[in-house]
């Protein structure tokens, strides 16, 4: 780690990651600040809403009492002249007041007082829901001596508007006792009303209403518009109401440790002061702040650790690559100031320059690549004596000065059945694996190189033998091939066969390649995983030379027997005939005789194709044509393919196809219209009044080929006939057989026949 930190490149990576972390951290911090600000604002909004609700609640209670007073003023039973008649019956007056009190909440007592009355019986008397009292007895019995009688007299004499009298303002106020709150309202709402309503509010119920919306950490006091304290709700704090009352006179006053919130009602102008302990009020905010800071610090520490690790991860691959090319140092002083990435970039630039130079040389044919050079030697297209000095030097580096070299051809045993169905990339990987095994296992025998360009179904290996091993080249080749075959079978489940070419000088290596490919034909008798050397194939070659030509009569008898077995419609008889044919093939041990006999069997089956229904004829014909071109790897494979084709013909013989008019119509229409270059699946479907999808499925089930592929086959067959029998040019033939242009025709012809149209005509016409 210390060495990495000392690296300039590592510090660059670290700085970039830390910069990203810093930007991310600032964004995260900004998000937290916004979140905390929203949390604080939410707390303030909730508190203000709570204050407004409490003030509105108090305002509503007092307003209800004012409405009650107006209703009392309209009650004729409580007018002075009625009261003076009922003084002797105080219970009737009390009952009437009880009825008025019942709908009002938070009322402890209700009373009526007339000042300056013309009736002597009403003077100095307060009528209540519990009886009649003088002001002194009212204060003593109803007010529990918490309010001075003189203050009550003074207020009642001078009352012009609603006034509160609270025991909080009394000098004899005793802590711990329940407070008394009186509300005096002129009876008819005018300043000079003779009647006065006296309401004793239920102080405990009023406080309980406010405790429902205020927690225990709050101290709350309310003042009327004249500054008289109405009630005081004391929380757990040690604040006295007098200290809070100072805030009314000085709105900017602050009390340490408390948050002061004020609210004024709209109707009665009540002024409410709410003192909240800051620690309790900000608890939710402090919790959110603590969590946010914890997450931020944890993220910051984790981010720093990840920055160091990420910088190390980014630095290590470049350091490893740079160490591999440590020899590339143009100048020690310059290299000491440069970081690994700069040095690696310079190395890549040098490789690019060398690659461009090499490509230029190859373009000017000054030098060939390894595979190009070896492939030219194998094909006999490169005369080593006449090639350039560069190519001769390259060939010497590959094969050395050794006089003896051999070609080994490794072939996939199941190429057509398995390997050819794999994607080209998978086939290349399999060939590449064989090349690696070839080069790794053959080092003890001589310089060696492998090519996968010479043949499609395998690779070609070249071994340039050491002088001391040259005499035992065939023995070493067999042992070497056995190693490769066993390795591929064990690790990759690939079955290979090997053919060893005769040793030749380097400049005659194409002869060794030719001998190896011709020996590989004898694998059809030797079977899979065979190793065919010149000495192993010598008896078979001698047998072929002694036989001269194949026994024509024997071939004819075998063909007649196969013909009879197919026509017999007896599958067991056909299977016995194929088994006998397999034994005859194995006994021949003659590649040329086998090929001739095998082709004769296919020709015999072709003759029977004309006897089967038209619906199956084209599919079986196509299968036999493919079988003619297919190069079987073993006798078992050849006989298996032959038996499958014979069974298809045997199953189709005698089937009635007269009912298959649709298929016949398709074939006839294609035969009439194949020369039209606009012929397509849609035109055929329109002609037959069917859908293209139905025609595609139907024709493929009947013929085995897609419809347009069958059309292409007919066109190619007609073109072959014209190439062989007429002097027409390629362009004229294209127009007659229905291809769009010469390029399309050439591609289709080469894909089917393996050669171009011109080459086909040259071969056929000699």
From TrEMBL:
Q: Which PROSITE patterns match?
A: HTH_ARAC_FAMILY_2
Coiled-coil ranges per UniProt: 564-591
Q: Which SUPFAM superfamilies match?
A: Homeodomain-like (SSF46689)
* Annotated HTH araC/xylS-type domain residues: 660-763
Q: State any single GO MF term.
A: sequence-specific DNA binding
Q: Which InterPro entries does this one have? A: Homeodomain-like_sf, HTH_AraC, Tscrpt_reg_AraC-type_HTH
| Record carries keyword Magnesium | no
Keyword hit for Transmembrane helix? yes
| Record protein name field | HTH araC/xylS-type domain-containing protein
Species this chain originates from: Paenibacillus solani
């Amino acid at each position: 780690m210390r060495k990495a930190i000392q690296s300039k490149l590592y510090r660059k990576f670290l700085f970039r990651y830390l910069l990203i972390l810093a930007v991310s951290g600032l964004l995260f911090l900004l998000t937290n600040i916004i979140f905390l600000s929203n949390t604080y604002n939410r707390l303030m909004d909730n508190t203000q809403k709570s204050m407004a609700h409490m003030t509105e609640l108090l305002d509503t209670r007092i307003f209800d009492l004012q409405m009650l007073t107006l209703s009392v003023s309209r009650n004729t039973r409580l007018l002075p002249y009625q009261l003076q008649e009922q003084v002797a019956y105080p219970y009737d007056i009390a009952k009437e007041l009880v009825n008025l009190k019942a709908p009002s909440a938070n009322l402890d007592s209700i009373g009526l007082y007339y000042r300056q009355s013309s009736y002597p019986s009403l003077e100095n008397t307060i009528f209540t829901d519990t009886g009649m009292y003088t002001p002194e007895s009212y204060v003593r019995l109803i007010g529990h001596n918490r309010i001075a009688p003189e203050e009550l007299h003074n207020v009642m004499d001078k009352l012009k508007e609603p006034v509160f009298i609270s025991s909080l303002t009394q000098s004899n106020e005793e802590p711990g006792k329940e407070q008394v709150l009186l509300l005096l309202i002129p009876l008819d709402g005018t300043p000079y009303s003779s009647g006065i309503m006296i309401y004793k509010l239920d102080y405990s119920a009023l406080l309980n209403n406010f405790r429902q919306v205020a927690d225990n950490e709050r101290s709350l006091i309310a003042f009327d518009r004249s500054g008289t304290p109405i009630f005081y709700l004391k929380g757990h704090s040690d604040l006295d109401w007098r200290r809070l009352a100072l805030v009314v006179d000085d709105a900017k006053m602050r009390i340490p440790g408390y948050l002061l919130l004020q609210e004024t009602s709209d109707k009665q102008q009540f002024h409410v002061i709410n003192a909240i302990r800051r620690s309790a009020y900000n608890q939710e905010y402090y919790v959110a702040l603590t969590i946010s800071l914890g997450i931020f610090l944890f993220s910051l520490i984790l981010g720093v650790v990840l920055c160091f690790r990420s910088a190390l991860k980014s630095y290590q691959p470049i350091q490893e690559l740079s160490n591999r090319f440590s020899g590339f140092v143009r100048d020690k002083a310059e290299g000491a100031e440069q970081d690994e990435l700069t040095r690696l970039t310079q190395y890549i630039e040098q490789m690019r320059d060398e690659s461009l130079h090499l490509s230029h040389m190859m373009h000017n044919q000054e030098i060939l690549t390894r595979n190009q050079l070896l492939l030219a030697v194998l094909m006999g297209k490169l005369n080593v004596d006449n090639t350039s000095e560069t190519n001769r030097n390259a060939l010497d580096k590959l094969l050395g000065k050794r006089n003896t070299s051999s070609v080994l051809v490794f072939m996939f045993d199941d190429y057509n059945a398995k390997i050819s169905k794999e994607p080209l990339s998978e086939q290349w990987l399999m060939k590449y694996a064989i090349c690696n095994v070839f080069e790794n296992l053959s080092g003890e025998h001589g310089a060696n190189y492998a090519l996968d360009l010479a043949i499609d179904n395998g690779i070609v290996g070249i071994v340039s033998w050491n002088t001391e091993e040259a005499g035992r080249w065939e023995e070493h080749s067999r042992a070497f091939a056995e190693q490769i075959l066993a390795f591929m079978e064990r690790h990759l489940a690939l079955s290979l066969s090997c053919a060893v070419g005769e040793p030749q000088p380097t400049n005659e290596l194409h002869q060794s390649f030719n001998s190896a490919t011709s020996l590989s034909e004898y694998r059809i008798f030797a079977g899979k995983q065979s190793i065919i050397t010149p000495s192993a194939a010598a008896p078979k070659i001698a047998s072929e030379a002694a036989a001269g030509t194949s026994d024509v009569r024997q071939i004819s008898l075998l063909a007649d027997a196969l013909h009879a077995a197919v026509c017999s419609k007896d599958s067991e008889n056909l299977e016995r005939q194929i088994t006998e044919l397999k034994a005859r093939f194995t006994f021949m041990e003659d590649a040329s005789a086998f090929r001739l006999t095998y082709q004769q069997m296919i020709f015999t089956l072709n003759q029977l194709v004309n006897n089967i229904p038209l619906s199956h004829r084209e599919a079986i014909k196509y299968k036999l044509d493919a079988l003619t071109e297919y190069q079987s790897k073993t006798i078992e494979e050849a006989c298996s393919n032959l038996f499958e084709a014979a069974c298809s013909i045997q199953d189709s013989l005698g089937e009635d196809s007269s009912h298959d008019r649709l298929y016949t119509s398709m074939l006839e229409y294609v035969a009439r219209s194949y020369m039209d270059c606009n012929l397509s699946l849609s035109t055929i479907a329109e002609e037959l009044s069917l859908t293209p999808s139905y025609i595609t499925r139907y024709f493929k089930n009947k013929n085995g080929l897609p419809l347009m592929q069958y059309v292409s086959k007919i066109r190619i067959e007609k073109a072959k006939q014209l190439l062989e029998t007429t002097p027409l040019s390629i362009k004229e033939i294209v127009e007659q057989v229905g291809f769009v242009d010469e390029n399309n025709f050439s591609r289709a012809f080469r894909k089917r026949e393996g050669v171009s149209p011109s080459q086909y005509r040259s071969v056929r016409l000699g």
